[in-house]
Request: fold
Amino acid sequence: MSESDREGDAQVDVALIARWQRGDQRAATEIVGRHAQALARYAAAQGVREAVEELVQDTFVRAFNSIGSFRADSSLRTWLFTILKRLVLDRQRTERRRRNQVELDETHAVQEFDALDGMVADETLVRVKQAVDRLSGLQREVFALRVTEGLPYSEIATLVGSTEGACRVHYHNAMRAVKEYLSDD
Amino acid sequence: MTDCPNGLMRDLLPEHALGLLPAAEAARVAQHLAECATCRADLVLLKQVRAAQSLGVPRMDVAAIASALPSAPATSRPAQRIASHRWFGGHAWQYAAAAGLVLVVGGGIVWRAMPTGEEARLADSSRVVVAPVESAGVREPLPADDGISFGGGLSDLSVDDLQALLGQMDSVRTLPSSDPESVTPVIAMNEGGKTL
Reply:
């Protein structure tokens, strides 16, 4: 997506926010429609398996309650991703305290996913999913944001708290690791 | 396993797979793909990754999520502005001018109400001198009907008044300091010529 296309897309969000602030509740529904599924995918990339819709809903509620703090110098979607990421971390902390035990390790998570989705998903996609799940947390996040959402490196860097150059390296390393995993079959 | 040596094309592949590239760039990538088997394979993989990432992700119920959102602000209230880099929404000079006006007018009023520097200094001196002298019992302050008045200046005083005044001034060996901390010792010296 070119820079002007991205700016145009961002302007649509800004215009929708302004409409909502003027009292048009339908603008909020349009905003949800534009970003809800991307947020759900991002949640999945963060390892969230349960209550995804509740998490996405909480993200939007929090966003609309603090819409005044949204700075239009980053895209609304990136801002929503940031909120969701904080909520995921909060949820993980709460869960850890509640269970008083360490989180499931990544291998366990992959096996859990396989058991759930292997029956219905194409076998190739399951293998690809396994390859992605084996990436480090940061690699997986950068890879998902780039491949699944098409975010530019500048916004990915903002989200993960890194530099554009480092994110580019993470992406290429992740791509190489996925290809290696699949070629081992 | 090899990577395509064309780093620019490799970088554009994710956006090409999502159909996000503008037409001109998409055409360049398509031309490259026609010649590069590695990038063709990468493009297939990227599409698979995207599909795989959607596995197990539930479809979001947009209406349900939207129904939980806070109500839109009332139309009668001014809309909350989206924060921007422009201070106060671009009206910074108006706020600055208003603040300056308040300072000028308010400062002028306060200045006119305050005593001049000399008046303030004398008022301060009288405060710090009179109180310790009374408390130390050195000398009673001059009563208002003492017969000595500076209302019309020294030229209005009679010779007797001037002599009485000079006599009183002679009895003061040291002028009190304006420093409150040192007032009491200085006055105390006048009592017996010794520091207490």
In short: The CA atoms of residues 48 and 105 of chain B lie 72 Å apart. Chain B touches chain A through 49 residues (CB under 8 Å). The mean pLDDT of chain B is 68.
